[in-house]
Amino acid sequence: MRVTEIFHSIQGESTFAGRPCVFVRLTGCPLRCTWCDTEYAFYGGSDTSIESIMDRVRSYGCPLVEVTGGEPLAQSECLTLLARLCDDGFTVLLETSGALETAGIDPRVRIILDVKCPGSGMSDRMHWPNVERLRAHDEAKFVIADRADYEWAKAMVARYQLDRRCSVLFSPVFGALDPRHLAEWVLADRLPVRYQLQLHKLIWSPEMRGV
């Protein structure tokens, strides 16, 4: 597998925010979101065996693991890695763009599905059946750049009854949308969503890698 980095940090997003977590960032992504903050994972990386990844993850002694990217599902071996992590007893999170099929993922994995708003420039790449198969322990995340994105995300939550399927996360694009504005919109509309900031960008420099 091509791996960009493996590191131990504080989980900055999702319902697991604040928890120590091991991140396995795989290389490569077919999308090019306008606000992407991990462009360095598009190319490069190191060829690494699944066994070597497992050894590195175990070395941190942390029960929570997130496989991310880039787009981790762009590598077919990702499904095997996810199953191996589950077999080892880890709580496994998968951060995925929603553009690639999720049907073959081990059911023990908690999928964090990044539903692409129009402001990302990639909403037309969404594979919508992925949204319909979300389960109670999964999460749907909307990264919101402006009011138009917010209204679109609100409509998608209603259309797919996402709040009845799983946890729904609304997050402002860092440095683009005032966090207060998004919070006020959510409160005014009484949306059944979890508001979140990227905690790791508040702890460390937003440009810092490996955190």
Structural descriptors:
211 residues; alpha/beta; TIM Barrel; nine-stranded mixed β-sheet; 7 helices; 9 strands; 27% helix; globular
CATH class term = Alpha Beta
* Uncertain ranges: none
| Strands, count | 9
Instruction: Just name the CATH architecture.
Output: Alpha-Beta Barrel
Order of helices and strands: EEEHEHEEHEHHEHEH
Strand order in the largest sheet: 3-1-2-4-5-6-7-8-9
Individual helix count: 7
The CATH superfamily appears as: Aldolase class I
CATH topology: TIM Barrel
How does the major sheet shape up?
9 strands, mixed
What proportion of the residues form beta strands (DSSP E)?
15-25%
Q: How helical, in percent, are the residues?
A: 25-40%
Termini separation comes to 21 Å
Number of domains: 1
Radius of gyration in whole Å, from Cα? 16 Å
What this model shows, in words?
There is one protein chain. Helix 3 links the parallel strand 6 and strand 7. Helices cover 27% and strands 23% of the residues. It has seven helices and nine strands. It is globular. The chain has 211 residues and is an alpha/beta fold.
Question: How are the SSEs ordered, and which strands pair?
Answer:
Layout (H helix, E strand, L loop, with lengths): L1 E9 L9 E7 L19 E2 L2 H10 L4 E5 L9 H10 L3 E6 L13 E6 L13 H4 L6 E6 L2 H13 L2 H4 L1 E6 L6 H11 L4 E2 L3 H5 L8
Parallel strand pairs: 2-4, 4-5, 5-6, 6-7, 7-8, 8-9
Antiparallel strand pairs: 1-2, 1-3
